[in-house]
Specification:
The protein has 10 helices and 2 strands. It is mainly alpha-helical. The chain has 3 domains: 62 residues, Orthogonal Bundle (Arc Repressor Mutant, subunit A), CATH 1.10.10; 67 residues; 41 residues, no CATH class. The longest helix is centred in the last third of the chain and has 19 residues.
Length: 187
Amino acid sequence: MKLSDGARTEEEVVRDLKDEEAHILSYAENECRKTLSDLDRANGIAKLRATKKTTAQVAGLYRLSERQVQRLEGLLEYPDELKRALDNAESGVTTTHALVLMQATKRRGARIDLKDWISKIRKERMTVEALRRAIREVFAERRRSKRPWRWSGTKFTMSLRTAEKWSDAEREQAITEVKKLLAKLKG
């Protein structure tokens, strides 16, 4: 509508909405205005979950698969350091990078420093495949630098493929470990 002084006004639409409807409308508006990050989506899903919505209901409302909803919800369990990197577009860390880092953390325990890996992803602009390869290489090197067998409780494991490459000192050390194990088993 145009007024006589040249100023314009826009029509305002006022609706009485339930919290859930308002949330969904807000989500849709934000999605149209800018592409939401996966972390933004995860936070939105958490708000809907607080209203006791099932995974199937949330998936239907957000037009996602149930598996996508579960993966997005998993982001909220990530360490704050990783969530900040996901939220920062300049970090270069994608949801898939974060997933690979979390899988490595679960497999490798405290031996992985998220801060260093996040920095490496940013500096080297690492692809997900390059990240996987780098993690494998680092931990393979760590395994090679240690003794070539594992001792866990009463279980002694060694790879015969790597045993062929052992030095004489490593062979002697392995023989000593096996003798200790046999002595322990004999009681």
